[in-house]
Amino acid sequence: MKHLGLIITREYLNKIRNKSFVVMTFLSPMLMVALISVVAYLSSMNNDTLKDIKVLDQSGYFGHLFEDRQQLRFEILPDMELDQAKALAEATAAYGLLYIPKVDSIAALQKGITFYSTDTPALVVTVGIERLLQRQANALVLRENGIDDKAIEALYFNVSTQLETFAGQETSKLGSGLKLVFGGAAGYLLFMFIIIYGNMIMRSVIEEKTSRIIEVIISSVKPRALMLGKIFGTTLAGITQFAIWVVILGVFSIIASGVLGLELGTGVSMAQDAGQLGDTGSQEMAAAVAKEIWQLPLTNLIVMFFLYFIGGYLLYASFYAAIGAAVDSETDTQQFLLPILMPLIIAVYVGVFTVIEDPHGTVSQVFSFIPLTSPVVMLMRIPFGVPLWQQIFSVLLLFITFMGTVWFAAKIYRVGILMYGKKPSYKELIKWLKY
To answer: Does any domain span residue 141?
Structure first.
């Protein structure tokens, strides 16, 4: 292992000096910012479009409810036939026509109201209109049954359930949503890092094997040291590239936001107009989000993210290195990659469909201890509060499994890097482990 440092340095410098590596390091975040900026710009253009909605209220119950909003303008039509109203809406290129027929009772309006439009209207618009009509209709029904306006107002109230643990710690629905975002982002980031840089290690091994450079290197370096050097060197290069991406993305996002005047969440105004955000102001929402973020176990999440990030990547990187040594070309890797990717895919599905539903359930706990799935699943569970002993035990299992994986991956690597011209099978790989 005395040459391990030299191998790591060689692999690291070879990667960061590669022209394609340098180009993608700086070009990828620029393209990503450009793509996001274009989407945000197009979204803002769409939201700036004024939606003109004609309202034909033959019932006489709802016309006074419709007031102009930021992107919605309502025009109450005089008493006319439906065909005339539709022709007028089409002639004036209106966004749509809301038709409320004349009925004998409010109950008959449950399925009698129609919204006419050229294309399918936006969901936030239709849902907002439905809520507005439904509240007024309920009030009219109660009034028909002899309940006065003051009693009707007293009947309406909003329920806001306060969430608190048995230990006295307050939680909230917003906090649960943020936990999902943080946990999901951490797990998905690790998933993508493993796939991108694991393939980089595999291609690097295949290139050196096919160019016969490996035969010269292996004469003075042990296969295990060479494999670990490739893994650690590529890992450092990947972390360097990732850190540069974060910095460039942050800088260019600020520049794009300042120059183009774009903001994230350009569709929020439409949701507000449709009544989707209730009575919570944007400043109150921002303060609530900040408060919930500070209540998250940020230190615990950062430390464990680092440990699982390193342990999970090293575990899968050893598999990728072994596969690269076993084959002669990248096309031969497909039969071996599926068993490697399946645990990762399962981990993502368990995280999305199980951890979100029950982060402390049996399935979530079991998969957060299995080394091949724990880096993703446990990272998704940690924001919801996982006992420290479970986290430590899971990390220890992960690194112990990594050391065991390195042992048998090095055996495949030792034999595979000198094998040419024959496509290996699983049976031959098992034989190599006995050498």
So the answer is: yes
